[in-house]
Amino acid sequence: HGDQEPWSFDKEVTGIVRKFIELRYQLLPYLYTMFWKYSNENIPMLKPLVYFDQEDHQTHFRTDEFIFGDQILVCPIQEPNAMGRRMYIPRGKWHNFWTGEVVDGGMEKWVPANIDKIPIFVKEGAIIPKYPVQQYVGEKVIEELILDVYFKLGIENSSVYEDGHDGYDYTKGNYSLRNFKLNGKKNELIIQQFKNGAFITSYSSFKINLIDLPFTIKEIEVDNEIVPLKDLIQNGNNAIHVTKEFTVLHIVGK
After folding, report:
1. Rounded Cα gap, residues 206 and 199, in angstroms
2. For the chain, how far is it from start to end, CA to CA, in angstroms?
């Protein structure tokens, strides 16, 4: 089979492999949550489309696409030198992970894909937890958990599970389970947090990236108290820094 290590090829291949390894490390909290659901609720980490939406007959014979976790759609490229492929997008709205384009599901779509970008879509309303890029697990102390929030008109639920990553203390309640309920409206976004477990995470705050927010932020309430925008938003973008202990985050637009 020869030497198959990334550096045995060229710099382009090495860079692509590095890119996806770093993405894997960023998605570790999402991945860990999916492992917990598999262990605790017998929910597979990788789901065929028919498992995701059995009532849609178009999903019944799609054998190469899959749902990673609950909210990420992946479609592998299986032909050499392909510049894209046709794939079926399940019902609902989905965000192209690479371009940010929002597409309507329930139909087939041609999706461009260069060698460094396989088709990945995120379900609208999803809250995807992320870590900073690391070279190995535990390299960095996580001081702030990143939450990528994909706006949706309506309600969507997401979860983040964490524990000590070692031992069996989680069986004694030493874990952290955060359930988020997103409710998007025309000029409002409400995120509720419900926390269980006694595990204390290393980080004290969230960095919430608001993706595809359809309005300009006018006011933010944290647990029914208005907080000056300058205290939460840095660099004038839609990234909010807020304590991990909040129970209700209410974002009002104009």
Report:
1. 16
2. 60
Predicted TM-score of the model (pTM): 0.93
**CATH number, domain 128-253, options 2.40.110.10, 2.60.40.1180, 2.50.20.10, 1.10.10.10:** 2.60.40.1180
Report whether 28 contacts 137 (CB < 8 A). Answer: yes
Q: Which amino acid is at 7?
A: W
The pLDDT tens digits of the residues spanning 34-90 come to 999 999 999 899 999 999 999 999 999 998 999 999 999 999 998 888 999 999 999
Please give the Cα distance from 75 to 63 (Å, whole number): 10
Burial, 168: exposed, middle or buried (Cβ in 10 Å; 0-12, 13-18, 19+)? exposed
Neighbours of 77 (CB within 10 A): 19
What is the C-alpha to C-alpha distance for residues 146 and 139, in angstroms, rounded to an integer?
Answer: 17
Considering the chain, what percentage of its residues have pLDDT values greater than 70?
98
**pLDDT recorded at residue 245:** 96
- Paired residues of 240 in beta bridges: 208, 233
Q: How far is CA 105 from CA 88, 90, 124, 127, in A?
A: 8, 5, 11, 19
Name beta bridge partners: 103. Answer: 94
**How many angstroms separate the CA atoms of 152 and 46, rounded?**
24
CATH superfamily, region 6-123: Golgi alpha-mannosidase II (2.60.40.1180)
Q: 184 pLDDT band (50/70/90 cuts)?
A: very high
Is the pLDDT at 161 greater than 70? The verdict is: yes
